[in-house]
Amino acid sequence: MKKILTFLIVVVLVVTGGMSLEPQVYGQSERKVLMFLREGVTEDLDFMLKMEVGVMTMLLKEAGFQVDVATYSGQPIAGQTEKIENVMKLSEIKLDDYKGIIIPCLNIMRVEVAPETLAVVKKAHADGKPVAAGLSSAGMLAEAGLLKGKKYAFLTDPLKRQPPDLRFADAIYSGAGVVQDGKIITSGGCPWAERAVGTQNRTVELTQTFIKAIGAK
Fold it and tell me: 2-22+31-214 has which fold?
């Protein structure tokens, strides 16, 4: 019931415009998280920016964290109606400043991920920082080798698809919920999946699990 009420509050804030997509600028902070947004073509970008990125950002801020947004290019992320202008270039961030990394799904499936991006995610994990990924972004963690021998969540088992997604060959598929294995947190549901195929949206649960892993105030 608590999760349902939380999600309803989030939806009301989004619909009424009571939630900003832009990261809040606090200046120097020891309670910062990095939200990495993958770049790629998606027809649902406005919807995912509002219902996934916006929800994650709001929950993190409510937990007392500053949210910095980064992309590989450092260019703003813009749909037809939603836009995030305050974006950092991934190569220019100082990873030591952040408590962890969260990567929304954004309904971006198989897009090429730069080696530099994979290196940042690998370093974060090697440094013991929690790394959370929504639905399709679990593929990025698999590509970085972070899911080897780890339990993870996805909409369906990627190895049972045709053709199978061999990035997950050494990982342990554990359903479509939110799965935490050590510092790796993955989700098998997002706003797009809920709307498209009726599976549960796990955005709130994923973010709350991430907050617990990095240490809420």
Answer: Rossmann fold (3.40.50)
Q: What share of the chain is helix, strand, coil (3-state, %, to 5)?
A: 40, 15, 45
* Span 32-41, pLDDT tens digits: 999 999 998 7
**For residues 52 and 190, is the Cβ–Cβ distance under 8 A?**
yes
183 vs 202: CA distance, rounded Å: 18
| pLDDT per residue as tens digits for the range 5-63 | 444 444 444 444 444 455 444 344 579 999 999 998 778 999 999 999 999 999 999 99
6: which residues sit within 8 A by CB, 6+ positions away?
204, 208
Where exactly are the structural domains of the chain? 2-22+31-214
Q: What are phi and psi of 199, to 5 degrees?
A: -80, 160
